[in-house]
């Protein structure tokens, strides 16, 4: 199986022999080219006559035409607009020539485990030849028209299909039936609802189906997820003069915040990242390593029972721990790399023990690893989240594994490896743009692998390939990163606890004594919009988070 990096290299080489050696390109060229290939609309499809220096990427107008000519020159991507007619696109687009079409499907459920049902629908669609290429965030909304029913979970997905509109409708209705939908009354409760919103740029009308969907522009619960995918698309109708995002912006203000939801586990409420009154989750670090930078050897792996009193204390404090981040491989600079077998021997007994104790059933377990095999084994015995410091870059199987497992993941920003990262701190466009663009590339790569957007969380990687000045800027301007185009709505984890830059500023050499400096970073993170804060000193930092929430999170 080719890695995603190899796939990117193949695409670049097809477009231009000068781009065939990806390792010779500057990171800026690679990241920008990748961002274009995974941009808001049609992926780059190379064309035979583009043999010199052009990459063609889709227009941000989202009108289905080829839109941007990208010319690599002296390590810089030069962008200019190219407008092609539909007939030209049909000739040049292999998908169009072979009958493959792109459609957007609304997803909804308000019976049972709503998120699980929507995820099942996506899996069934994919298994039946409706390739799910991207998904929106998920949103919880009150029912319209018939209000006396449970809230809905709504989303949207982008698919590729060879079916005609009516064939696609029939397939979606069959999937609804197979997932248990029984229609009783109009606009009533439903196990699953799959509606065709858009089908390429076509207008379709008959007694059974209308495309574009007739009522989509009046429904925020439809428009908002669709705008996660194609915000700048203009509907293929003569009267349509504005794009979808503009249509969303003109809707009457909602009485309640419509926030993306990110599930943590089946036992806990999801994160609502855009809800201004949301609590900040406390993630406790449990390093089962002998060589972590501040707490190596503190928790013995040979006798995991000894950790039970500590966990009971975590859950009984005034601001209890929500997530336990379990790690068996140190990622401090120059830490020796152990085998996957040894890493598993350190973490699996503890995860199994926690999951066997009924009093810890609501405790979310995150596994801190960059190895796909370790992540899969940990999820198998009861972990809920995969926390990868490399965002899938240190193991090419990781993103495919996350997609297969269907669990939530944390994609952290890092360059290189723990051995090389401290030399990779050059960000020509600034630290916020650098981290934002590189994480956007990781998100696109995860989507390509099949990871759902509602299953992603991000981490700016404080202390990883960052200087002291850059760490401080990330904390100071964190709200800008949280609002970065293409990343908006995805929850953020921030972990600055006991980091070296805190010691340098405060003069505290011993990492375990850096509580006061850590507390300051936590308040900055909460103010900037962090959803989860990862800490060592659970009792003290729990109090700091509770106070910061009282100040910065409206109640």
Describe the structure.
The protein is an alpha/beta fold and 555 residues long. The chain has 18 helices and 20 strands. The chain has helices spanning 4-15, 27-37, 86-92, 94-98, 114-127, 165-178, 220-229, 244-249, 308-316, 340-356, 372-380, 398-405, 431-449, 468-476, 478-482, 500-506, 515-528, 538-552; strands spanning 55-58, 66-73, 76-81, 101-109, 131-135, 138-141, 152-161, 193-199, 204-205, 210-211, 260-262, 271-272, 281-287, 323-327, 364-368, 385-388, 408-412, 456-459, 493-494, 532-535. It has an eight-stranded parallel beta sheet. Strands 4, 5, 6, 7, 8, 11 and 12 form a seven-stranded antiparallel beta sheet that branches. The longest helix has 19 residues, at 431-449. It is globular. It holds the Pfam family HPPK.
A few lines on this structure:
This protein has 555 residues and is of the alpha/beta class.
How many beta-strand segments?
A: 20
The parts where pLDDT drops under 50 for at least 5 residues are 10-97
Strand order of the largest sheet: 18-17-16-15-14-13-20-19
Q: How much beta, percentage-wise?
A: 15-25%
Alpha-beta content class: alpha/beta
Proportion of helical residues: 25-40%
Report the total helices. 18
The whole-angstrom Rg is 24 Å
Average pLDDT, all residues:
82
> Termini separation (Å)?
50 Å
Based on the structure, what is the oligomeric state of the protein chains?
single chain
**Gross morphology:** globular
| Biggest sheet details | 8 strands, parallel
